[in-house]
Write a structure and sequence with these properties.
The structure is a single chain. The chain is mainly α. Helix content is 72%, strand content 2%. It has 13 helices and 2 strands. The protein has a two-stranded antiparallel ribbon with strand order 1-2. A hairpin with a 2-residue loop joins strand 1 and strand 2 (73-74). The longest helix is centred in the middle third of the chain and has 22 residues, at 75-96. It is elongated.
Amino acid sequence: STRVWTSAMIVASMRFAAAWMFLPLLPVLYIKPLDPFDFAHARYLYLPCAGFAMLVVTAIRMIPDDDRRLAGLPTRQFAAAIILVIALAAANLVQQVYWASNIVLFTRGVSVAPRNPTGLTNLGIEFGKRQQYPQAIELIQRALRENPDDWHANFSLGYTYFLMGRTAEAEPLIEKAVRLHPDDADPDQWAYLGMTAMRLGDTTKAEWAVRGALKRRPDVPRYHHALALILEQQNRNREAAEEFL
């Protein structure tokens, strides 16, 4: 009968929707290999949301019919759908305010998770971009107290000190950041380590660091120029001339 077929279809659709919702989540439920301070992301829910939406639709369609119709649906089901859409739209609008700027977004993040190194570091970077260095330093130092081996926090604090001319404080932090992830460190991190070492007169470390940047991006002219300046200081003029070319 139609009623039996409809019931069977509802059960089948609910099973399919539940599978669609939970199966894509299974890989990220194993959080051991993930960053302990950064293991939850909205992108994990992109596919599961489709399954959840199917379950919601199925629930709405199970609301008892009535004799009236709106847009081809029973009035009660139509009303439930409209209320849900309005509620979701309102919730979305409330959240939009936090995306006005990075500093608003990361301020919100720190207020929700005040001990998360990623949020603290990102907010500190935004203060640093505005040259509000005391606030930037305080936030990134808080991040390092939570996780001293966070390469992003180490580099960001070192870079902030570099901008302030506090080279002796910047150099060990930038070096630690590079050594924490030497294989996938951004070439600019190696370059900044070279610049700090050069300012401190350690041309050996400066050369090693700039060559690290060149190994990853040999096509960047400023890295060759920096290496040439270092080689000049070491009186290796022939090699320096080759880098200027």
